[in-house]
Amino acid sequence: MTTENFMKAVGLKAYLPISDTNSLVDVQLPVPTPGERDLLIKVEAISVNPVDTKVRSPKSKVEENYRVLGWDAVGTVVAVGSKVELFNAGDEVFYAGDITRPGSNSEFQLVDERIAGRKPKSLSNAEAAALPLTAITASEGLFERLGISEGKSAGKTLLIIGGAGGVGSIAIQLAKQISGLKIIATASRPESADWCRSLGADVVIDHHKDMVQEFRAQGIQYADYIFCLNSTAKYWPVMSELIAPQSIICSIVEPEAPLDLNLLKSKSAHFVWEFMFTRSMYKTADMVEQHNILNRLADLIDAGKIKTSLSKTLSPINAENLRLAHTAIETGKTIGKIALTDW
């Protein structure tokens, strides 16, 4: 922080290709003041997600004031709002934040206490920053949207399309906690397939080949659950064929065109979305569940049952390194997560 009331940040006014140096720029902004349920966090590490690149992608809109992106962070609570109950100044936290508020690409950030969790003690700042958005997405998708549970999912098959990315990397590990659940993940390159196996996938198939044939070569007719983390429209015919009757498909990727839901009718199959910002956007009555998810995740990590999906770290946190991270993500070939540390 260069003065008492201002902070370093990376922002944008125009939505430009990442190759343009003005797509993300270093700026100084006022340090925000916490509201009633807010934590003021000194940000120490962040990570970058596809949502960052999607929000930043070229469009005609121009912001009057600098917009700060970023939806994954680790930091220390330096001040709390008047009605905060879950944390105190000095606590180390990690969180994904709220897409309707300024993001984590700044030295200080406000976040509602109900969507923050305690930082895992066994991880570095970069390792922890790689996790919140993907872990919340994976947890909500698997256990709330798909309804996977220890009690009813043993002996069933889960197909994860896009297993080597950020969400897939955590989804495989979380699903592995369900005893007897068979996990089939997709990956197209030897290194991404190896990554999925190292995280606990029982089988890896190539989503660039005939996926129906690849899947059924495992001696399984249908998947009891499908979690789509890549191109819903592209894989819709495959998912419609592979989903078991009276079962569920969950996706996190909006399609480029409307989906033909008639493909699911004869199977009485369900389709459901997972969007981890829903709770914070709409201030749902169960918003605090994201706090609970992150705390449960921290317990699993500190018990050695889940490992970070961090694959690369850049330092310091600045516009140049964030442009490098966005560029890598836009290739569609990243494995795990990219984090940035220190200002």
UniProtKB/TrEMBL annotation:
Q: Where is the Enoyl reductase (ER) domain?
A: 19-340
Read off the InterPro entries from this record.
ADH-like_N (IPR013154), ADH_Zn_typ-1 (IPR014182), Chloroplast_QOR (IPR052733), ER (IPR020843), GroES-like_sf (IPR011032), NAD(P)-bd_dom_sf (IPR036291), Quin_OxRdtase/zeta-crystal_CS (IPR002364)
- NCBIfam families, from UniProt? adh_fam_1
Q: Which keywords label this protein?
A: Metal-binding, Oxidoreductase, Zinc
- SUPFAM superfamilies with a match to the protein in the record: GroES-like, NAD(P)-binding Rossmann-fold domains
> PANTHER family per the record?
ZINC-TYPE ALCOHOL DEHYDROGENASE-LIKE PROTEIN C16A3.02C
Please report the name of this protein according to its UniProt entry.
Zinc-type alcohol dehydrogenase-like protein
Q: Could you say which protein family the record assigns here?
A: Belongs to the zinc-containing alcohol dehydrogenase family. Quinone oxidoreductase subfamily.
Entry superkingdom:
Bacteria
A family per Pfam: ADH_zinc_N_2
